[in-house]
TrEMBL record:
<dbReference type="InterPro" id="IPR036291">
    <property type="entry name" value="NAD(P)-bd_dom_sf"/>
</dbReference>
<dbReference type="Pfam" id="PF13561">
    <property type="entry name" value="adh_short_C2"/>
</dbReference>
<dbReference type="InterPro" id="IPR002347">
    <property type="entry name" value="SDR_fam"/>
</dbReference>
<dbReference type="InterPro" id="IPR020904">
    <property type="entry name" value="Sc_DH/Rdtase_CS"/>
</dbReference>
<comment type="similarity">
    <text>Belongs to the short-chain dehydrogenases/reductases (SDR) family.</text>
</comment>
<protein>
    <submittedName>
        <fullName>Adh_short_C2 domain-containing protein</fullName>
    </submittedName>
</protein>
Length: 255
């Protein structure tokens, strides 16, 4: 693919991306940063935060980072407090963290696993936005990362898929609640060969089967997801709110 020249749509903006020290979250932080945002990266491990900061700094990005396990209330509060202390405001929040701890059928999934899926994939997004809301600027934007599995919860990731379906509803509900000053949209990625989806990396047959289900005969990239997220977060999407963009190479989702 030809290298696309990036704009500076986020000059002067402050963007928080959760779970952003690798994979899709890192790609989003990088894209927003390259387009001029000050980005705040976070994840569970200090070392990963430090490494992500170094990588982004080396690309000339203004970046700050803190440890934040999204289901830890104190760490969520600290993420928002540190951001506001440093930059005085928040323009963009990308809620990207998720867990997929089990491949059990829903009826065999333990209660503790059901709780963890709800906590990390849905509740933590809500609680983070509760903390962030007082600092969100007029014209600000929230992007929630769902999944193609939210439309089609295939058996091996069914309950994970259901939590991602919940995010489609959450997007609609929050868009209403946070209007008109803050837009809330959602990106539903297809399959991207990250650590999270390492079964694709490890299994050539699974990779080929997924590629075949797309219309463009390839897996997604973190850059594909970052491009869609950056569009929705930018003023170019100022008339779009409550929507989900499926970025899945044409894999079946909905009409
Ligand atoms: P990834 O490459 O495995 O990256 C996960 C990132 O999240 C890491 O930086 C990790 O760092 C951090 N993290 C993990 N658990 C966390 C937690 N509880 N709190 C805070 N940070 C946490 O994953 P990914 O594929 O980019 O997935 C990102 C999002 O995309 C998820 O919402 C996932 O559901 C969605 N998605 C992915 C795909 C795909 O095919 N990859 C498809 C559809 C949707 P630490 O280890 O330091 O915490």
């Amino acid at each position: 693919m030809e290298k696309i020249k990036l704009g500076r749509r986020f000059e002067g903006k402050v963007a928080i991306v959760t779970a952003s020290t690798q994979g899709i979250g890192f790609g989003i932080a990088e894209r927003l940063g390259l387009e001029g945002a000050s980005v705040i990266v976070s994840s569970r491990k200090q070392q990963n935060v430090d490494e992500a900061i170094e990588k982004l700094k080396s690309k000339g990005i203004d970046v700050f980072g803190v440890v934040c396990h999204v289901s830890n209330a104190q760490q969520r509060k600290n993420l928002i407090d540190q951001t506001v202390q440093r930059y005085g405001k928040i323009d963009v929040v990308v809620s990207n963290a998720a867990a997929n701890p089990s491949i059990d059928n829903i009826l065999q999934t333990k209660e503790s696993v059901l709780d963890k899926l709800w906590e990390i994939n849905v509740k933590a997004s809500i609680l983070l936005l509760q903390d962030a809301a007082p600092h969100l600027q007029k014209g600000s934007s929230v992007v929630i990362i769902s999944s193609i599995a939210g439309y089609y919860p295939q058996q091996s990731m069914a309950m994970y898929g259901v939590t991602k379906t919940a995010l489609l509803g959450l997007t609609k509900a929050l868009a209403t609640e946070m209007a008109p000053d803050t837009r809330v949209n959602c990106v539903a990625p297809g399959f991207v060969p990250t650590h999270f989806a390492d079964f694709i990396i490890k299994n050539a047959a699974a990779k080929a089967a997924i590629e075949e289900r797309t219309l463009v005969n390839r897996l997604g990239t973190t850059e594909d997801m970052a491009a869609a997220t950056a569009f929705l977060a930018s003023d170019e999407a100022s008339y779009i709110t409550g929507e989900t963009v499926v970025v899945a190479g044409g894999m079946p989702s909905r009409l």
